[in-house]
Structures are given as C-alpha cells and as structure tokens.
Amino acid sequence: MSENKLKVESLSAWFYEKQVLNQVSLDFPDKKVIAIIGPSGCGKTTFIRCLNRMHELTPGAKVKGRVVLDGKDIYTEMDAMEVRRKIGMVFQKPNPFPNMSIYDNVVAGLKLMGIRDKNLLDKVVESKLREVGLWDEVSDDLKRSGAQLSGGQQQRLCIARALATDPEVLLMDEPTSSLDPSSTAKIESLVRVLKNHATVIIITHNVQQAARVSDYTAFLYLGDLIEFGETKKVFESPKNPLTEKYVTGRFG
Amino acid sequence: MNYKSNSFFEKLFKSTLKIAALIVIGIFILLFYSLVERSIPSLSQNGLEILLGTSWDPNFEIFGGAPAILGTLFSSAIALVFALPISLCIAIFYTEYGPVRLRPFISGVMDLLAAIPSVIYGIWGLWTLSPILKINFQEPIIASIGFIPLFSGPAYGLSIFLASLILTIMITPIISSISIDIFSKTPMPLREGMFALGATKWEVIKNVVFPFAKRGVFAATILGLGRALGETMAVTMVIGNSYIWPFKSISLFSSASTITSKIASEFPESVVNIIHNSSLISLALVLLLISISINFVAEIISKKSAGRLNV
Lengths: 252, 311
What we know:
The structure holds two protein chains of two kinds. Chain A is an alpha/beta fold. Helices cover about 35% and strands about 25% of the residues of chain A.
C-alpha cells in the first residue's frame, strides 16, 4: 500500500458557470486525520464532496482533475457506488433514516451490499455502536427509530452507519456544528481513534477543533488551496500570511 | 394595552369560524338524514334486497342492488389497480429520472387531464375508445381466450372494462400529481445519506423515497378511490347500463351498472313510483356509507402507520 491513500491532482469544480474549486492538488496520507479549514464559502464542502463523487448529484455540478484512491482514478476507473462504499461520509446535520430502527440504520450499507447473514449483522451492529460509544445508551432497544435519539446520539449513529462497511476513507463535513459541547467532545475523541483503521478527512469551522483532532491541516480560501502540512506546522509557523491570519482568528 | 378593543373582533372572528364549521356539519347531517328518510319506503317494503337482490325490474317492483353495488366496487378497484402503478411510475420518472426541462410539460398535461370535465371523458370513451377497444382488444381476446368466463363474448365495446379504463384515466392525474409533490419533498439529507452508503438511484428510491412518501401516496390513493366511486357521468356513458354483470355474465367485456349510473339513468322516470325512487335513494345511501367507511378505515390505517414511523 502506498503511503498516500488518496491523491488529488489539480481538482477544479463548478456549479453551472461558477467555479468553486481551483486546481487543488493534495495527497492524503493513510490512517491520519486531516482537517480542512477555511472561511464559509471557500469550497470546503464541495472539495470533500468531490472525493466521494457526491458533488455530481447536485444539478449543474462539474468536476475536472483526478482523484486517485490506491492508484485507481475514482472518476474513470471506478463507478460512483463503489467509490462511496470505500469512502464513507458523515454529514453536517445528523441524518439517520427515520423509517429505520437504530439497528437497520447501522446495517443499511451492508444490506445494500447484499449481506443478510443475521449473525454477522448483529456483530457489526454491536461493534460499531460500541466504537462510537452508543452501545450502552441504546442496546436495550435497538428496534427504536433512529430519529428518536438526541442530536449527538444521532450523529454518532450516523458515524456508526458510515463505519459499518469498513470504509478506507471517512469524510466528515463539520460533524459537530449542530451539536452541544459534550457531544462535540465525544465525537472529537472518537475521530482520534478512527484513524487506526481509516483516513479521516474532517471539515471544521472551528480552528481549535482542527488543532485538537488532526495530524494534517489544509487551508482553503476562495477555492484555492493556500496551505497544507502537519497541523503543528500550519498552526505554529504557517508559510502563508493568509493562513496565519485565519488560524489566529483575524478573519473568517 | 388595547386588549379590550381587540377582544370584540377576536370574539367575532371566533364565532364566524365556529358558524362555518357548524354549517359543514349541519349540511352533512341534513344530507344523511334526508337520504335515510327517503330510503325508508324501499327498506320497509323490500328489506335488505337492495343489498342482496340480483335483479331490478321496476314493473314488478323488484329492486335488487347487488349488481350495481358490485359494479361500483369492482370498477373502482380495477381503476385503482391500474392507476396506482402508472401514477407511481409517472411520479418516479418526473422526480427522479426525467429531464428537468420536461417537468413543466408533464405537470401541465397532468393538471389539464385532471381538469377535463367528466362528460368529455364520457363522450371520448363512447365514440373513440369504445370502438378502438372493441376491434383491437376485446375481439382478439374473446377469439383466443374467450372460453374463460372472465373474457367471454360478445364484444360490446361498452363494458365494465371500458368504465374501469376511463376511471383509470380520470384518477391517474390525481394520484400522480399528489405523488409527485410528496416524492419531491423527500429531504435531501436523507437521499444523500443513502447515496453516501453506495446506494444506486433505485435503492435510494426504494429505501428512502418510498418509505417517506408511503402515507401521502396512500392518502392520494384514497382520494382517487373516492373520485372513482362517485364518478357518474363518464361511467354512465360507457358502462352500457345493463344488469347482466356479474350474475348472468361474469365477463369483463359485459355491459354493467354502477350505483351512480343506475341513479343517473333512472332517476327521472322513477318519480312516478315511490318504491322505485326510494330504492334508488337507498342505493345512494349505500354509496355514501361505502365512502364513509373507506375514509374511516383509511384514517385508522394512516394513524397506525404514523405511530409506527414516528414521523
């Protein structure tokens, strides 16, 4: 396995005529947490949605450039469904399927893959819910609707759902932006553990959060990648004055 | 605080609303009462024959309503069986697969179809659809599998089958346009959540859109069923208004009657015979009871599913 899990080569993206990403090139190292920071509207969300081909679901969306997962171009050598199974995603607002139980939410991805073995599914449900720290809170009634949980629990359920298929890369789009501090803390400590088996790419609005959870940080500004490097370096000795201004809270 | 001056208008407003609500209830009670009252002569003379009797002869004061009641239930049920899948296909195509540019055209045609007065469907069914069906559909089928009683001859054109078809065409725009509304209200985050797990478009429709839309589509179906049960003009024009189906001939190509076609075609002449008139009104009462019970059952089912879904 190459050291870089996911390589992005001069990636540009548009909505209709409006360009939102401009020639971004970036290599994501394997089994690390990479934070994407930048002010609102800088293209962070579009950027990670290009990494699992969610961007193309939006009307008027266009992409140019290459995204390579383990040597394979996800746009030309894989189909979108395969890409999304290998590159999981957690959204800004928790979105458990309201018509499904907690159990069925966790195994939704496995069922799409045609896995029906009850023992296997049971095992996955328990291990993934334990991993996200939800097992003790919900194990008494897994038949409950996922929508009945609190916001923080819902988000952890969504993380368990994304992890159930053992994705190699996990994309997280501001996963704590709608949560209270204690839920946020739980998810942050979870992110630090997740890198043991996946590359985690997390967008955050909160510069301190990036500093707390990530090994590497990428700073995007108006669709351009301004700086990318080890989080420590980006925060302590940024190369670009814009980065310095942003991480010290002088704009954004 | 000018709370006091407001409170007069507040009260006036409230009582206006109350009166409007009471008027609706009052009209329903009055309507129900007069149907019952005017059904009594028939019910006291012939009892439950209006439900169970299979023949109808005003000259001998025989008024059995079963063929008309079954005609109503059957033609509406067939219409629903055809219209529901067609409507779902239209709604899926419109919201999920069809080009966005085509949408105004499709919904325009839907609205137009829903707005056509039923007498026009009747004329079209009578003059255009009936001969086409007779030659291209009924006759070949009768010739090939006519030995099956359900498809036996002769081919009249006007038939319970044609009535069901016209009803299908009439209720499809209703069910599909409501389904389109509901499908397109499926929350984007839920769709994307399913896509992000590697789902195909169809899997997203099956696992997210359908469960979300289920209750609404059910309600749309009940609305369509109500329309089909009560439809009078178009059905009267294309069903043939005979009383042979289903007891003398079970064939789908046989002419038949529904409650509404029976009432519409005989009401004017019935005024000379009070039992004849009262029997037609009893049929109307049966139709009203059918509609009420369907709405009642639908309400219960949709409440139950609401409880289960927690939505």
